[in-house]
Structures are given as C-alpha cells and as structure tokens.
Specification:
There is one protein chain. The chain is α+β, with helices and mostly antiparallel strands. The chain has 12 helices and 31 strands. It folds into 3 domains: 152 residues, Galactose-binding domain-like (Jelly Rolls, Sandwich), CATH 2.60.120.260; 290 residues, FAD/NAD(P)-binding domain, CATH 3.50.50.60; 89 residues, no CATH class. Strands 1, 2, 3, 4, 6, 9 and 11 form a 7-stranded mixed beta sheet that branches.
C-alpha cells in the first residue's frame, strides 16, 4: 500500500501493500469540512466532519498521484452517526477525477469501510473530491484504492504511526493548551526553561477557545500578569467575542519563547521504570510524528492522557459519601452516593442563532427527535450538557458529542415550527465538546469537599480560590423528559479556600505533574476548582515547580519536601 498525506506535494508515498490509503484529514483543500481529532483514541484517526448546521458545506478536494492508471476499487471509512429507521443524516458522495461514485457514503452504522465500487483512472495525478449532501455532520476518515478488486482495506493496526525518528529535547514538556497549559508554559519559560507546549487544536484555550466558547470563571489569585495575558473577559457562553480573547492568548504565547506545537496530538509515552522519558505526538493533518524528551512533564490534557499512558494512579466517577465525609450538607443536599459509581459531570456543546431579515428554512431532522422530543429552543447555554452512567466521558466521547448534536438540531427544528421564529437561523454550533470531568490523576493529597467547606489551610498552598462548589447532574434524574439538560448543586462558600501543591504531582510517576481538571481531587472536590482561572493558577504553580526540579535536580515530590518555601515564593506566597 502507498500511504499518502495529501497536504504535501501530491502526497508522500510509503509502500506497504497493494493499494493506496488517503487520509481525509490531510486533504489539501478542506473546503467547509473541519478536522475533528477528539476521538483518535477511540476510532483510530482524525477525520473530516461536514459541520454545516443543516446546509451542505463546500467540497473538500485533494490530488493523489497514483502509481498506474486503470481500474481501482474504492473504499471509504465513514460512519452513520445517527443510525435508525430514517435516512442517515451525514451523507456524502465522492468524485474521483471526472467520475462521481454512485454510492452515498455515511450510511453504515458504526465506523467501518464502505464499498464504493470500481472506478477507472485515466491520469496518474487525480483529483479526489468529498461532496457533502446534508450539512449534518457527515464524516470521512480515509479512502482506500486498490487495483486488486479483492483487496481489503487496512485494519487500524496497519495505520498506526511508526516510532518517531525526529526527537526534540526540552527541559519541560507540557501537553494541553488550555489556560492550565498556557499558564504552566509561561511560568516555566519565565524561569528560564526550554519549554514545549503541545496542543491538539489550532486554537489555544481549551474550553475557553473560540472553538468551544466557555467563558472563564474563578479568580487570578497570585497568577497576576500571566493570567491577565491569557484570560478572557466575561462574555456570554457561546459568544463570538471568544475569538478576540483567543487571539489575545495567541499573541501572549507568541511573544514568549515557549515553543508551541499546534495542532499536534500526543498519542503515547515512553517510560524508564516509573519516570516518563518522552511523549510522542502526531500532527492532526499531515500525520507527521515527533518525539519530545524532557526531564519534567506536565499533563494539562483534561482527560489525564499522559498520566494514563504512563500508568499513573487515577480515579473516575463519584466516591462514596463516607470516604471523604462528603454526604449531606447543612442545607440537606445529598452530594455523594452511598456507594461509588461512574456518574460524572457531563460535556456541553454550545450553540446560538440569529434573526435574519427574511424567513429561513430548516431541514426536517427525524433522526434527532427521539433525543429532543418536544423540547424547543433557539439558543443553548451551559445547561446543555450530557452525562450518563452508562456512557464513559472518554471511551464514549463521540457518542456523547453526537447526542448533543441531535438535541440541538431537534430542539431547533421544534422551535422553527413557531411562526415567531420564522426568521431565525442557526449562527454557530460547536463541534468540539466542552468536557467538565473525566479522569482525575492522584497525587500525594486528594482534594475534597471538606477542604473547601472548612477552608483548610496547607503549608504547601499554591492556589487560592473562593468560587462556590458547583457540581452538575442531569435534570432527567428529577423526572424531566429530556436527558441533555443539567442542573447545578451549589455550596456557596463566599470565602477563600486553598489548594496544596501535593495535588499537582503524581503519587507514582516521579517526573509528572498535572494541572487542570485532571488534578488530584474527589468528584465533589473538583466542583469549585475546575474552572479555568483556577486551573490557570495550578498551571503557573507546576511551571514554577518544573524550574525548581531542573535547578535542584529533583522531582516534584522533592520540591515539596525540600524546596517548598522557594516554590511558594515564586508563586507569590511570600514566607
């Protein structure tokens, strides 16, 4: 097979077997299709998504240089993402040269190869075109061409990248470009370290980016100028004002000496006993791979991927109410279950609409109605959130995001039946889900509800916050008809509380720290500090700690044991 990354000049070919694999994410012209990398660990690859909000998007086009002309069988790896007793929502066609394949793709349940039949090629360089038919989230992972009509497409194992031959060395490698990752990178850079920041999207900010558009909450604490350069003003969730703030964040990072790798997605680590030696990452479009070696690593991925691959201890779900005494509070609210379970806060897909001068049509969406039911809306806020005890926020992330698509399109379709909304059209729908909770990597201390409610002070305090404990649960649990709206359970404290450094390094991986929602905490302990300015403070603390690790040739735990006063001073906590 010749493997082709089409962003390069007519593709770079690698002989593997009797066929040609074209990765869709590497198309030279994406048109209106977007690269979706969120689910690589689940389905094997980034893919192109026809995210048109019900309007077919512009074609994606690339050129492939075939080794010979003649007849080829075509296969397309795709998915019917809302299979049922209706026509598949994300249908598209493929044009090879001047020949439009007769098959409608995107109609097979689950990710798999769909047979497109035979096509005769008359030229070695041939244009390949993806033609969206619906605007409703059609997806294409790859195309396979073989001049052997009996040849089958490659299994995912055959498509995994080879070990990187390009190796770069840094003092500290940070994975995840949200506020936690940006804060960690800037703090470490200002301490003179050689810093790599790896992020799997072209836009920095994580949930605060203009691709997700969750406004920042929490205080800057001692974060000072670093957080001012990367924080957002308090715009409404889903607002286009996120773009200007994301631009500001990029300008701040570019003005530093942090070496940024956008959009590169980490996919594994190499280990030496209980230490991370390197992180491997892959460009989400070109497929290039690199290895990043360092003495210290900081996991700001949110899902705790670096720690997970390294074998770090972690938790997922709710603890028993007895483990950390997180039971009933003075208001009579029950915060934790009697026995542990896998229920967590969910993921949101934000969206909005606008009013036009003339009436607008919206297509029928029968595939969305069993989710939306009778619910009608023309805008979505943070309450648009999905979590289920039967679905895992990481393993089932694509299904969760797609469930929200169905909720949005179905609710908007219901709203359009009202004559008052005749002129209303969808303006923006996120395709990147904003997660609240998944893996939590365990440190030498596990932060809990009582640490907030009792305002416990710690000798190793490096983060200060005063935001209320705020955990979400689905309205469905209280008997509501739909399952994609949530409520918040608040414990309004109103005073400062404190987070210790021991929650920001792994208890069993020597050179790993973590900042963000994957820090060491209980499910309820995450409720207050999970917001972005607080996680930015965590990042700054880990960046400063990384500098001390290098200066004193020690580990993060060694910083806690022997250099704590230095760390607190660098974080703004004068002794």
């Amino acid at each position: 097979m010749y493997k082709i990354f089409a962003t390069m000049l007519l593709g770079t070919q690698l002989s593997l077997a009797s066929g040609i694999l074209v990765e869709a994410e590497s198309f030279m012209q994406k048109g209106g299709w977007v690269v979706d990398q969120q689910f690589v660990q689940q389905m094997g690859s980034p893919y192109l998504l026809a995210h048109g909000m019900g309007q077919p998007v512009e074609d994606a086009v690339t050129t492939v240089k075939f080794p010979t002309i003649g007849k080829y069988r075509v296969w397309v790896r795709t998915k019917n993402w809302a299979a049922g007793d209706w026509k598949a929502p994300g249908r598209f066609k493929v044009k090879v040269g001047s020949h439009l394949l007769p098959v409608e793709f995107g109609t097979v349940p689950g990710w798999g190869w769909q047979d497109g039949g035979m096509v005769e090629l008359r030229n070695k360089p041939t244009a390949i075109r993806l033609i969206d038919l619906t605007g409703f989230e059609g997806r294409c992972d790859a195309l396979f061409f073989s001049d052997d009509p009996n040849a089958l497409p490659p299994e995912l194992e055959e498509r995994k990248p080879a070990a990187p031959t390009v190796v770069q060395r840094f003092d500290v490698v940070i994975v995840g470009g949200g506020l936690a990752g940006c804060g960690a990178a800037l703090a470490a850079e200002r301490q003179g370290l050689n810093v790599a920041l790896i992020h799997d999207r072209p836009r920095l900010g994580g949930n605060a980016s203009d691709e997700v558009r969750v406004h920042t909450l929490g205080i800057h604490g001692k974060g000072g100028e670093i957080l001012k350069g990367i924080d957002s003003k308090h715009w409404k969730n889903g607002s286009a004002e996120a773009a200007a703030d994301t631009d500001k964040r990029h300008a701040t990072m570019k003005a530093s000496e942090v070496q940024m790798f956008l959009p590169w997605r980490a996919y594994g680590v190499t280990m030496e006993e209980n230490r991370i030696r390197s992180v491997d990452a892959r460009h989400i479009e070109s497929g290039e791979v690199q290895r990043f070696e360092a003495r210290v690593f900081i996991d700001c991925t949110g899902d705790g991927w670096i720690g997970y691959w390294a074998g770090a201890d972690f938790r997922y779900g709710r603890e028993s109410r007895n483990e950390f005494d997180e039971g009933w509070d003075k208001h009579g609210d029950l915060w934790s279950p009697e026995t542990p379970d896998n229920r967590v806060m969910g993921s949101s897909v934000l969206w909005n609409s606008h009013r036009l001068a003339e009436p607008s049509e919206f297509p029928a969406v029968p595939w969305a109605m069993d989710v939306a039911k009778q619910h009608a809306s023309i805008n979505g806020e943070w309450q648009w959130e999905y979590s289920s005890n039967e679905l895992h926020q990481i393993d089932d992330a694509e299904e969760i995001r797609d469930h929200m698509f169905r909720a949005i399109y179905g609710s908007f379709s219901n709203a359009k039946k009202n004559p008052e909304h005749a002129n209303v059209a969808l303006k923006w729908v996120a395709h990147i889900a904003g997660k609240r909770e998944s893996r939590r990597l365990m440190g030498d201390y596990i932060y809990s509800m009582k640490d907030v409610s009792e305002a416990r002070k710690f000798p190793d305090t490096v983060v200060t916050e005063k935001r209320a404990i705020d955990v979400h649960y689905q309205e469905k649990l209280k008997g509501k008809d739909v399952d994609f709206l949530s409520e918040a359970l608040f414990h309004k404290w109103g005073k400062f509380y404190y987070i210790p450094f021991r929650t920001l390094y792994s208890r069993n991986i020597e050179n790993l720290m973590m900042a963000g929602r994957c820090f060491s905490c209980s499910h309820i302990g995450l409720g207050g500090p999970r917001v972005m300015n607080t996680t930015g403070q965590m990042g700054i603390a880990t960046g400063n700690a990384a500098a001390l690790c290098i200066e004193h040739n020690t580990t993060p735990r060694g910083v806690y044991q022997n250099h704590l006063s230095e760390l607190r001073k660098r974080c703004g906590y004068e002794e």
